[in-house]
Amino acid sequence: MTGKPVTNKAPSTANPTFGRSSNIIAVASGKGGVGKTWFSITLAHALTKMGKRVLLFDGDLGLANVDVQLGLMPKRDLNDVIRGRLGLDRVVQEYEDGGFDIVAGRSGQASLSALPSQRLGLLRDQLLDLSSEYDVVITDLGAGVDRTVRMLSATASSTLLITTDEPTSLTDAYAFIKLGNAAGMSKNISIVVNMSSSVAEGQKTYKTLLKACENFLRLSPTMAGLIRVDSKVKETIRSQTPILIRSPNADAAEDVEKIARYVWKNVENAQRRSAQG
Q: How many folded domains does the chain comprise?
């Protein structure tokens, strides 16, 4: 078990708050198909290999697939929390092969993506409570900037926005930043360029997005890192095995490990600022 023993406390009934935890990292994208869930899994695994206690929370309400990519058949998932049958801490399960914990979602459950604000707020509050049991919590958000994405990302100290060099991906990433700016999320967004043909092309993609943000939004999101295109990624997804187990020396694996170090440094900085008040 990577986290501390999870207590069997009842679900919170307090009014929703707008707290933010310094160790929650949201992973988002403007559109689907950019490798967001694969990245979330690999990032959680990389942080675990660094000796951190990690929880991977599948917050893609309605289109969850963390469990599918890991080849798991969870007995308990987020639907049990939404229905009020269990507290969030009761659906945490250990992914033994990777050494980190997960909260699985429920794929194809439309009701999860249309939760009333009060229920979504209670879920968020439970996630904030649970985050104290871990060094890092990775929240795999749904694509876009709908109400559930905004509310769950509000718990995070920072958001990693995944994009590729495809024009539609860049356009949607820009739209995410624009809408996020209106929702007060823009100061904490960093860019991850996925499936880059080279380091130079990845940096070029980031600079294209950065220029648009600076010209039209007066924002300068930082670059968290890039991930080179790698045939090993598809192999690991097909085999439902994390790349850091199946192909730990692959280019994509090494790139995510670099981003993991960047993420942990930011978590430490956020915790330091929080301690200083």
A: 1
For 165, other C-beta atoms within 10 Å of its C-beta total 19
Nearest to 259 by CA among 44, 43, 49: 43
Query: Residue 13 contacts by C-beta under 8 Å, 6 or more apart in sequence?
Result: 122
The answer to whether residue 246 is domain-embedded is yes
Residue 151 confidence (pLDDT) above 90: no
Comparing CA positions, the residue from 152, 127, 160 lying closest to residue 55 is 127
DSSP string across 226-259:
EEE--HHHHHHHHTT--HHHH-TTSHHHHHHHHH
pLDDT at 226 > cutoff 70: yes
Whether residue 179 lies inside any domain: the answer is yes
Tokens describing residue 253: 């694996």
Q: For 100-128, how does the pLDDT look when each residue is reduced to its tens digit (9 = 90+)?
A: 999 999 766 655 567 788 888 899 999 99
Alpha carbon distance 220, 222 (integer Å): 6
Is residue 187 a part of any domain in this protein?
A: yes
Indicate the pTM of the whole model: 0.90
**CB atoms near residue 213 (< 10 Å):** 21
Cα maximum dimension of the chain: 51
Using DSSP, state whether 9 is helix, strand or coil.
coil
Residue 138 sits in a domain whose CATH number is 3.40.50.300
Q: Is 4 part of a structural domain of the chain?
A: no
What is the DSSP secondary structure assignment for residue 89, as one 8-state letter? G
Cβ-contact 135, 3 below 8 angstroms: no
Rounded CA separation 106/92 (Å): 14
Strand-pairing partners, residue 215, are none
> Whole domain around residue 144: which residue ranges?
21-275
